[in-house]
Amino acid sequence: MPVSPTSFGSTSSDLISRVRARDESAWERLAELYGPLVYYWCRRSNLRGEDAADVFQNVFAAVSANIDQYEQRDDSNFRAWLWTIARNKIHDHFRRIGRDGEAAGGTAAHERLAELPDYQPAEASDVKDRDELSALLHRGLTVVQAEFEASTWRAFWRAAVEGDSTADIAADMGITAGAVRQAKSRVLRRLRDELGENPW
Asked: In this predicted structure, what is the pLDDT of residue 200?
């Protein structure tokens, strides 16, 4: 079955562990992978560009402050946890502008708050969400590709992304079916560690 960008699950993450250890390169990687998704959430919530940038900064400040409390459970994953933080910071923004009288008629901020969706970890709510999750997956793939030999990557790509059968890949590449399964498993495991989520 091809990799689905809309069906991440929960798993342990080497990246999250390194972020907790205050590894600067891990923090940069986390921001590189998830920053565009957070910004998309901000813009989807009808924040203006400058407000979206402010909320974006607040989200990652909260992630940094709370990463030690993050726990992955069967019903939770990093993206859902991140969305909870983002949603709270977006709420905070609209509450603040409502108090400051910037919301027209005094009700616009309240209406925007009510429109923020609950996050659905197992599925994207619309085409744009699926596109953003697909982009996250592709950022992760780009990050890990250089760590694998070309033949391993090709076997993984055909099995996980193109959905070719193990038997066909093995025959075409002159390797065993077990080698195809191992290539797919190795890349997906590494991708899972990088994203903090299971990409299938």
From this structure: 52
Dihedral sign (CA 181, 13, 86, 26): negative
The two tokens of residue 93 are 């923004």
Which residues is 197 bridged to in the sheet? Answer: 10
Quote the pLDDT of residue 1: 42
Tokens 């409502």 found at: 98
Phi, psi of 11 (to 5 degrees): -165, 170
Do residues 156 and 186 touch, judged by C-beta distance below 8 A?
yes
Q: Cα–Cα distance between 64 and 92 in angstroms, integer?
A: 18
Whole-model pTM?
0.61
**Residue ranges of domains in the chain, CATH in brackets:** 9-142 (1.10.1740.10)
Q: Is 173 exposed, middle or buried (0-12, 13-18, 19+ CB in 10 A)?
A: middle
Which segments in the chain show pLDDT lower than 50?
A: 1-12, 74-75, 103-106, 109, 119-124
DSSP class of residue 91 equals H
CA dist list (Å): 48 to 43, 90, 115, 126, 182: 7, 12, 16, 21, 46
Q: Which two tokens stand for residue 61?
A: 């400040």
Candidates 9, 15, 5; CA nearest to 193 is 15
